[in-house]
Amino acid sequence: MPFSGVLIAIYEATYLQLVSAYKGNDIVADLPDSLVPLWCNDYAASSPNSELVEVSDGTPGGRSFSYLFDLSLQRNVVAWGIPGYVTDKRDAARMAGSPVGGDYRYHRGHLMSHGTGGSTDINLVPQRGSLNIGAFRRLERKVRGLAQQHQTCLYFVRTLYTDGSQMPHQIEQCVVQPSKAVSYAMHNNF
Fold first, then answer.
1. Structural domains of the chain in order of their starting residue, each with its CATH number
2. Nearest Cα to 1, choosing from 74, 73, 77, 75?
3. Is 58 left (phi over 0), alpha (psi -120 to 50) or beta?
4. Environment class of residue 16 by beta-carbon count within 10 Å: exposed (0-12), middle (13-18) or buried (19+)?
5. What angle do CA 111, 134, 42 make, to 5 degrees?
6. pLDDT tens, residue by residue, 48-91
């Protein structure tokens, strides 16, 4: 399968522009309608033979995240949704052996943390261990704190690839609050 190796054409400025131009009443609910086509087009530019499907996890308790998944390359492209505050323990046995086996430098990273309502399975990507327990956690904690305070936000995590593997080269995180405040981070995953 051809792969162009093109990295992101969507940057933080794109999100800031979309948010500042928004004129509706519920940016958290409405913004994904603008973002999903952008993410699909951006991904298709680097992986033209992709077969994207949108999947919703329908987590118990009313929390739900959606995922764009490439069936051709069996990898997650982006996860988004409105986080909840979860206090129950995750099922660690379900994660055993997936998606990375044997490489201690990489964790089975959750795009959406269990503490905000993320599930396992489709939600896992190979994530550098130091990133998973370091910089990536900063926005996760912010999102969890907002959920704990019953403050709604849109949270998304996008994986960016430079080849046809399941290993993201970069991981992008973004939080958009109803006030139009945006928190953004781009992380290298190598």
1. 12-188 (3.40.570.10)
2. 73
3. left
4. middle
5. 40
6. 999 999 998 875 555 679 999 999 999 999 999 999 998 877 66
DSSP secondary structure letter of residue 82: E
Three-state DSSP state, 84: coil
Whole-angstrom Cα distance, residue 63 to residue 88? 14
- Amino acid code (one letter) for 106: Y
* CA–CA separation, 94 and 114 (whole Å): 13
Q: What is the pLDDT of residues 100-136, one digit of tens each?
A: 555 668 898 999 998 888 877 788 899 999 999 999 9
One DSSP character per residue, 88-143 reads SPP-HHHHTT-S--S-TTEEEEESS-GGGT--SGGGEEEEEHHHHTTHHHHHHHHH
Its pTM stands at 0.88
176: which DSSP letter?
E
